[in-house]
Amino acid sequence: MWLSGERPGPIGARLAPFLALAFREPRLRELRPYTSHWTLLFSRTAEWPFTRTGPAVAPTSTPGRFVVDSRKGHPSPEIGAATALHLVLTHLPASRPR
Questions:
Q1: Which long-range contacts (CB under 8 A, 24 or more apart) does 76-81 make?
Q2: Cis (ω within 30 of 0) for the bond into 8?
Q3: Which Pfam families has this protein been placed in (predicted)?
Q4: What gap in Å lies between CA 66 and CA 58, rounded to an integer?
Q5: How far apart, in whole angstroms, are the C-alpha atoms of residue 67 and residue 39?
Q6: In this structure, what DSSP letter does residue 9 have?
Q7: Most CB within 10 Å of its CB: which of 15, 63, 71, 78?
């Protein structure tokens, strides 16, 4: 989508600050990003059914702010993109050997 010149939909636009940082992170580039219910998730499988791996990132109503759900039942408060990326990486399982 991004390479073909298409504009992101409303969720992609709200996730753009986080995606710009996440794109540069090698550990996240190993995973397939997908959205469900306005939330960004990551999968180790490239095709459906996806396997949720690590935290989920949801944009808030405040532009550039996010909530990270680490799957431990305690979502973060509203945070900026850099802090959200740090939380995602902190709670991401170790990479699989190739």
A1: 80/17, 81/17, 81/18, 81/20, 81/21
A2: no
A3: DUF6193 (PF19692)
A4: 5
A5: 10
A6: -
A7: 15
* Tokens coding 65: 């702010």
Q: Does residue 98 or residue 96 have the better pLDDT? A: 96
* The two structure tokens encoding residue 36: 């469900």
Distance CA 22, CA 89 (A): 10
What's the pLDDT tens digit per position in 32-80? 888 888 899 988 878 788 788 889 999 999 999 999 998 777 788 899 9
The reported pLDDT for the residue numbered 50 is: 77
Side-chain half-sphere of 84: how many Cα atoms within 13 Å?
A: 28
What's the CA gap between 78 and 83, in Å, rounded?
A: 10
- pTM attached to this predicted model: 0.80
